[in-house]
């Protein structure tokens, strides 16, 4: 895997059956240091790093969003920017 737009080749990581990721969920995959999120039936592999300053962005079950604890950036389940100082949405990996 590699972030979209990166020049390096990256590595291949088997994330298993898509059915393992129910709609509305964000599952942390330790081996890839990423989240697999299912937003309305669309799967996304998202970097755990905030595009602002690189803090680890956890998924908040109560709000259903990714919320950066460092500076308050918020991202929807698909990794799109909602608010805060981050200049863009979360980095996505090819699936």
Give the structure's gist in a few sentences.
The protein has 95 residues and is an all-beta fold. It has no helices and eight strands.
Question: How are the secondary structure elements laid out?
Answer:
Layout: E1 26-29, E2 34-39, E3 42-47, E4 59-60, E5 65-67, E6 74-75, E7 81-83, E8 92-93
Antiparallel strand pairs: 1-2, 2-3, 3-8, 4-5, 5-6, 6-7
Please, could you describe this protein's structure?
With 95 residues, this protein is mostly beta strands. The protein is 0% helix and 29% strand. It contains no helices and eight strands. The strands form two sheets. A four-stranded antiparallel sheet has the order 1-2-3-8, with no helix packed on it. Strands 4-5-6-7 form a four-stranded antiparallel sheet, with no helix packed on it. The radius of gyration is 13 Å and the shape is globular. The termini are close together. The mean pLDDT is 90.
Residue windows where pLDDT falls under 50 for at least 5 positions: none
Level of helix content? under 10%
Number of strands: 8
Oligomer: single chain
Q: Which series of helices and strands comes N to C?
A: EEEEEEEE
What amount of the residues lies in strands? 25-35%
Name the average pLDDT. 90
**Biggest β-sheet strands, sense, barrel:** 4 strands, antiparallel
Helix vs. strand class = mainly beta
| Helix run count | 0
| Rg (C-alpha, Å) | 13 Å
List keywords for this structure.
mainly beta; 95 residues; 4-stranded antiparallel β-sheet
